[in-house]
Amino acid sequence: MNISIIGAGPIGCYCGYLLAKAGQRIDIYEEHAEIGLPIQCTGLLTSDFDQFGLPKESFLVNTFGEIEINSPNKQLTIKQKEYLIDRSKFDGFLAELAKKAGAKIYLQHAFARKENEGLVIKDTKNDKEIAVTPDAVIAADGPLSKTAHAFGLYPADRVSYQGVQAVVEGKFDLNKYQTFFGNKVCPDLFAWIVPESRSRARVGLASTKDARKLFDQFVLERDFKILEIQAGMIPLYHPKQKLQGGNCYLAGDASGFIKATTLGGLVPGLKQAELLANSIIESKNYEKEVKQLRKKMNFHLRLRKIFNKFSDEDWDKLLSLLNRPKIQRLLERYTRENPLPLVVKALITEPKLWYFSKFLF
User: Fold this and answer.
1) Which residue segments constitute the domains of the chain, with CATH numbers given?
2) What are the CA-CA distances from residue 301 to residues 56, 105, 256, 294, 316 (Å)?
């Protein structure tokens, strides 16, 4: 089977690797001149990443043992193992994995348009167009996916966040990263400080409006020296997002399969790539294969809608309740990848958490 993958990010390359390893002919087209750039991701992974069995040595930056959560007047520390990776090296690692399996990667080759039964790819380096007619197309070309648009798979009402992040100098605790909630800091998400070393960290936030203004205010209140700054769009998961149309499949940010609670997409995206590759290899229905993953995405979205209604007092109340020993043990047991069992057990353990059910309506 001849498969064209649009986008050589981690999800496109991982999917390409799995398919090429299974004997499919894979061509991966990447519009940029270099894999992994520009960087538009913090690179924070839960320990669920271990399920993929990928060696971390070449791209691991730091391993955390704690997460510090801050509301306007409360603080909560959760013991959790998490990883910080170098996204450029991680993307490069997966690209090399795909190439070794037999996939071909074409840099400075951008999706131009859909034409009849095929695609037109623009070779931007040589300023020429190339017509290709693959058996299948995988759109892994990011949150604004031109491929998804061309195949009629891009929701007209998709909501996106603007993420702003900087690498800064300061003094940091290497064993933990910090998150900050509240309407003054970031009304519809949170801000973060994720240390790379004792003197460098990735600091940022994301919001549907005024992201740069909120970011500037957050940094101004701390004694950080900005070394470099990054920005990018992050899609909010859309519950009615179609993942297949004709011979085109969506994966990663192009599909919007992002955890709405945190806007993290690497772990669900890699899992989605495995499900997609298996669907193609085994001639299975992709939509059915991702059903369980979609349920997780839907639950993250429901939690996001609840959190968006919180006042600062609600954030303080939540952290106070989560600080209780029995809840702490639950928080240490479950990662944020699949919050449903955590929420169910927490509500049983601490009935006062039912207070927040009022935001369901």
Assistant:
1) 2-40+87-158+236-302 (3.50.50.60), 61-85+162-234 (3.30.9.10), 308-360 (no CATH)
2) 30, 34, 12, 10, 22
CB-CB contact of 124 with 31 (8 Å):
yes
Q: pTM value?
A: 0.94
Q: Which two tokens stand for residue 267?
A: 């772990």
Report residue 49's pLDDT band, with 50, 70 and 90 as the boundaries. very high
| Chain segment 245-287, per-residue pLDDT in tens | 999 999 999 999 999 999 999 999 999 999 999 999 999 999 9
Instruction: Say if residues 148 and 185 touch (Cβ distance below 8 Å).
Output: no
> What one-letter code names the amino acid at 66?
E
